[in-house]
Amino acid sequence: MAKKKHKPKPQALTSGDVLSVKDTKKNLNASKSEDSSAGNDPVYPPFEFPSISPPSIITEGSQGGPWRKKITEFTGTEDEKDFPLWCLDAVLNNRLPPRENTKLSFFLHPCEGSNVQVVTLGKLSAPRILRVHKVTNYVVEKMVLDSPLDSLATDGASVSGGPQQLFAGNGLLTAGSKPWQKLRPSIEILCNNQVLSPEWSLATVRTFVWKKPEDLILNYRVAVAK
Q1: Which of 16, 107, 147, 190 is disulfide-compatible with 219, CB 3.0–4.6 A?
Q2: What's the domain count of the chain?
Q3: pLDDT at site 98
Q4: E-strand spans in the chain?
Q5: Residue 204 CB-density burial (10 A; 0-12 exposed, 13-18 middle, 19+ buried)
Q6: What is the pTM of this model?
Q7: What is the CATH number of the domain that holds 125?
Q8: What's phi and psi for 35, nearest 5 deg?
């Protein structure tokens, strides 16, 4: 009878034993799978640009940037797309762009419960860039003109400022520094019950405080001593 050949059973490796080819391939595949899973989350060390030669970023695109050119340098071959519409309208159609309205109309009233009265000629008009402290000066000087100085004594500090111009209707009101007595009340200008910063312009007040399409309404009062 022929003897059956028995396959040797795998035995635990001891130091000095050599792995079979099959075991070696199995271990290699396992190590590769571990490497691929580890490559999904690469961790790179922080990168620092050298201070001596910083990097240059170069981009390319089809859109060109703004350009300047003297009118004497034009050859007549330029594309109309290179010119702004207002320029083409002025040159080809002889139409100038409409001027932006630089004036702003507003009303100036005393605060409710205030004893201070200022005589004005109705609606006022002034440049949009006019600062609030110019309106304050106008109020103070109208008070000095129309009221006794003894009735204006307050605990407020003096109001300073150079000459300013306010337009009332079609007339021009000029209020500037004059040799009056040094005692001048401290006036606050308000809009929507908010005390305005002296450095704000009328345009800023209308946009961020008034927030209405109607004419701006400003109120004034003698500053309360703190």
Answers
A1: 190
A2: 1
A3: 79
A4: 103-110, 124-127, 164-168, 171-175, 187-191, 194-195, 216-222
A5: middle
A6: 0.45
A7: 3.10.20.90
A8: -65, -40
